[in-house]
Amino acid sequence: MKLDMMMEAIEGLARERGVEVETILDAFANALVAAYKRSPGAAEEARVTIDPESGEVKVYAQELDEDGNVIREWEDTPEGEAFGRIAAQSFKQVMQYKLREAKREQVYEMYEGREGDLVTGIVQQVDLPRSVILDLGDAEAYLPAGERIPFERLERGNRIKALILEVRNEPKGAQIIVSRSHPDLVRRLLELEVPELTDGTVEIVSIAREPGHRTKIAVVSHDPNVDPKGACVGARGARVRQVVNELRGEKVDVVQWREDPAQFIAEALGPAKVKEVRVDEETKTAEVIVADHQLSLAIGKEGQNARLAARLTGYKIDIRSDNEGAEEEAGEETEAAVPVTTEEFAENEVAEQAADEAAVITGDDEDQAEEASDDESE
To answer: Is pTM beyond 0.85 here?
Structure first.
């Protein structure tokens, strides 16, 4: 029995689906075994061989012992159109299953061990406000609701980049879990734009991110002639702008890492200008002093700038204005020198107010006296 035309179809299908011809032939052989067992007078056990060159098919009936070992085997290839039709129907059913199975295995092998890699996909399905299915070309990726950028609007057909978090070999096929909210997504995006990061000249030390709002990246240069911030930002911000565009406008601050914790914290609180940083390395806390007009900038909207700086540096940061710090120090000195009760404080406040008023009046009288003496001299 020869299947010349079917062999051509098998080879074409293998090229189209990216599956090995041997895989399809194995599936076809299983289909023919099933077809043979349904033919009249067939043996209970059989095996099928297919010559990949000529397409010739042979069926070998088998007799097994109680342990399942083959004790006798003979060729029993059915002839006629009936077997051909049954074989074709069985082939289609088994082939669909085997192709899906082979494709799933192939996809899993292709993406296994690629956690942390960047992939580009086209939004295929959006299940608002939950998950998104991405078409990666040779596979599908699953973007869970928790891994999406908050408030990001994704529509069918959008081309986006995502970070591979996990590759699972599920019974239904390989499941590729991706993320757009993970901090390492910003790292991979920046590596695409900055050659100094890929060749090791510049290194990303730490990342702090609030997806959809702001990201801070600490970088250091291993070459004294290379400015790490300048390398990452690019001419007129061209390099970092590509990352911002991919993240739909999320702000990205590039900070220079410093070995001295106080300097690093001051850098991390940028764009605010810091006057002084007092660091306690044992408790991992830092007290930061800024000018009054820099306080809101250092803290940021809803504390975001200070919060990201704390994550970036690993220190708990307490930010105060210089006036606030001076007032607290003065208050502490007064309390230490003269303990004052509530009643005494009230009496002192009245006395001080009266003294101030007297001083104003005295000052006016002195001015009038000076004017009178001037008149007499004239």
So the answer is: no
